[in-house]
Amino acid sequence: MNDVLHTILNHRSIRKFEDCPLSDEQIKQIVECAQAASTSSFIQAYSIIGVKNSEKKQKLAELSGNQSYVAESGHFFVFCADLHRHEVIAKMENKDLTKSLESTEKFMVALIDAALASQNAVLAAESMGLGACYIGGLRNNLEEVSSLLNTPNYVIPLFGIAVGYPAQQPDQKPRLPFDHVYHEDTYQQDSNIYLQQLEEYNELISAYYTERTNGKRSDTWTGQMSKMLSNPSRLYMKDFVNSKGLLKD
Amino acid sequence: MNDVLHTILNHRSIRKFEDCPLSDEQIKQIVECAQAASTSSFIQAYSIIGVKNSEKKQKLAELSGNQSYVAESGHFFVFCADLHRHEVIAKMENKDLTKSLESTEKFMVALIDAALASQNAVLAAESMGLGACYIGGLRNNLEEVSSLLNTPNYVIPLFGIAVGYPAQQPDQKPRLPFDHVYHEDTYQQDSNIYLQQLEEYNELISAYYTERTNGKRSDTWTGQMSKMLSNPSRLYMKDFVNSKGLLKD
């Protein structure tokens, strides 16, 4: 197995870091790797905010649902969907680009662009002996996050990535069965097979938790998911994104 | 430089392939790498459809704006945002999850999940000596794509990835200046610096095209962007996504 496959398959989210900041060189290397990702029609519709200031990191840790490892990370990256750049271009080039910038299509493009870049960043960091954890909790309160990071209109902070020297080596959680996620030529429509795959996966996940908690926990995956999704979260999102000028049409 | 950084930084989109299909082993390896990516709260809200059938590949090439390399690829992967699985879970667990599934937040989660997985897939393929190209053109006509691939409600095909043995080695296009994409502690708000960075980048891109076309082309980046964004594309997207049950609230 080559080193790239090994790094990818060895991924686990790291939530405990040594007290050691990343060097500027490491940060630059990670960002340059992020920038090397594909971007839709060369649009480059994202920005990255690196947070060094310890008060801001602390505040972001709180805003993300008191995830202390945000503050304790060696560096905290915030990945943003960014069409502000293209709004500036509209003025430079004396064009009205509003209809494009407000479209659902371009919102999707910016999200995908930012996510591709971020996954390059995570793998780059991991290849350098660092660990990383995506922080979706950043979306708990984007109004405050935006205000703290001073982001303009047409910019949506999407998630953070806490990066640092790992001080733990957690187990990897088994993923959904290959045949459940990967379909050939047509989306799997046999509902019996589909349900059977989910039930087999439930057994796997339940055994995983039982073993690791001495039997105290034996959640199934579908149980976890139905519990989580029964409590709709971040329902302010549409209004927030709209208020920044995006996703209007 | 380690092999992971080298693979990431060496990326270019490949649009010309040798006539050689991927093996099932290669496909499996690529998908397993995709699945190893982080996923928001373990939700795993994506699916991958691999297209082998040559008529379907040909049809998808046409639907994507006559991109012949879709049909000529060694394998064509379609990455989908997928919350259908969680709608099935609602029935299994006898819960009403509609409010979550319809939310803008969960639409974003599914897009980000799919994109993280896809970038792992691309890097895995590249590390195995293959080349890849993202096909956003798949979104030109998602109604027909969905019908061709038989995707159910709560599933949105987001983009394709054409993968195969590369028969070209294109140049890499320079990315936006590091300081323009990466901000420290606060989003860059000095509009003079911001504009200057864009103008410097315009010179770089213009020189890039001039050199490669013997002076026939000298587009600036902001010129390209304003031209592209002056023609809003895929304005049907919001209605389409809504019709599949997503992004309603």
From TrEMBL, chains A, B:
Nitroreductase domain span: 8-165
Keyword Protein biosynthesis: no
Top-rank lineage group of the source organism: Bacteria
GO molecular function, one term: FMN reductase (NADPH) activity
Signal peptide limits: none
NCBIfam families named in the record: PRK10765.1
Gene source species: Litchfieldia luteola
PANTHER family: NADPH-DEPENDENT OXIDOREDUCTASE, OXYGEN-INSENSITIVE NADPH NITROREDUCTASE
Entry keyword set: Flavoprotein, FMN, NADP, Oxidoreductase
Protein name per its UniProtKB record: Oxygen-insensitive NADPH nitroreductase
Pfam families assigned to the protein according to its UniProt record, in alphabetical order: Nitroreductase
Stated family: Belongs to the flavin oxidoreductase frp family.
EC code: 1.5.1.38
CDD domains hit by this protein: NfsA-like (cd02146)
